[in-house]
Amino acid sequence: MSEQYLLLGYVVDTFSLDGTLKILSKTDFADVRYKKENEVFLFNPKSNQMQVVHVVNFRRSEAYDFVKFKEINSPEEALKFKGFEVKAIKDYSFLPKDSYYYVDLIGCKIVDEKKKELGVVKSVERFPAQATLLVKRKNGGDFFVPFVETFIKKVDIADKIIEINVIEGLL
56, 68, 87, 148: which could form a disulfide with 41 (CB 3.0–4.6 Å)? Predict the structure, then answer.
């Protein structure tokens, strides 16, 4: 796959007789991603196959998105997509200048104020209070850094470096 994709969620089940999919949501912008007629992709992680689908309608309930796609019209068809990932093409055109996606933070080096390398971002975890970086230490286990101004001093996506403010007890 030469294009870059964003993960929108995971198909966990079918919902209703029209082939609507129940998707465990992993996007903060479901209402934008699932606008009527938008194109998204159903990706099979086992076979690396991707299928284009088009949104007919969408609704959200707690952690789940319920999406009806034009190409899926029965519970039997929908069931074939259980376990698939729902993806969208990563598009920077509608982001404000100097903005990025959380996925862009993965792989960034974490350095302290003295530019000492502390580790690499392994993932971005989203908690109710804020997003948090899970960082793999250079020599050892993992640690968390809340992705808030108090801790994050500078994010340089181009060079893949994040400078943090290290306070007592953080590491």
Answer: 87
